[in-house]
């Protein structure tokens, strides 16, 4: 992992987003140190390590290699779609407190893509800043999608959809199945980044995804 990437990860962890990256936790720090995430070689080295998966959702037209990140209120159609799916009455955060981010990122195909993410409004600006640093470090992300359409069952150990997402009103995941407390995702305060390459690991070493 390059120095630039490490700086980006440190900045992301510093935001206090509990599960922003598993590398913020002790168990997955060892994985990151061992090269568990795909990374680009230093510029000018003439060689790069190609990741196994390339994003199946390329941008329709090439985007400039320049970061762009915006924060907006949830559009009415998205809010309507979220109600009863990733958000429902009883969730620990009001839906009006959530914000929609539009973020550019480097894909596994080494091209610039643009994705959407829903997070808690209290951390929206910090998330944009963190992803700016990840972009500048050329940290690669496979896919970035809203959880509404792409979020799998939270306890499905066979999910192979490798996308980066944040808000999802669900309980924590344990080795025994759904827990009894809310996940930080339910507050919009956690982000899964490349969950196949960088899976969630519990304190006792449990890896929830069989495809990781």
- Report how far apart the termini are: 19 Å
Question: What's the number of extended β-strand segments?
Answer: 6
Instruction: Give the mean pLDDT.
Output: 72
- The percentage of residues in β strands lies in 15-25%
Biggest pleated-sheet summary: 4 strands, mixed
Backbone structural class:
alpha+beta
Tell me the number of structural domains: 1
Number of helices: 5
Query: What string gives the helices and strands in order?
Result: HHEHEEHEHEE
Radius of gyration: 16 Å
The coarse silhouette is: globular
What portion of residues is helical?
10-25%
Which residues form runs of ≥5 with pLDDT under 50? 1-57
Describe, in short, the structure shown.
The chain has 212 residues and is α+β, with helices and mostly antiparallel strands. Helices cover 21% and strands 17% of the residues.
Describe the protein's architecture and organization.
There is one protein chain. The chain is of the alpha+beta class and 212 residues long. The protein has one domain. The chain has helices spanning 3-14, 26-33, 76-82, 124-136, 147-150, and strands at 69-73, 98-107, 112-120, 140-141, 171-174, 177-182. Helix 1 (3-14) runs antiparallel to helix 4 (124-136). It is globular and about 45 Å long. Residues 1-57 have low confidence and may be disordered.
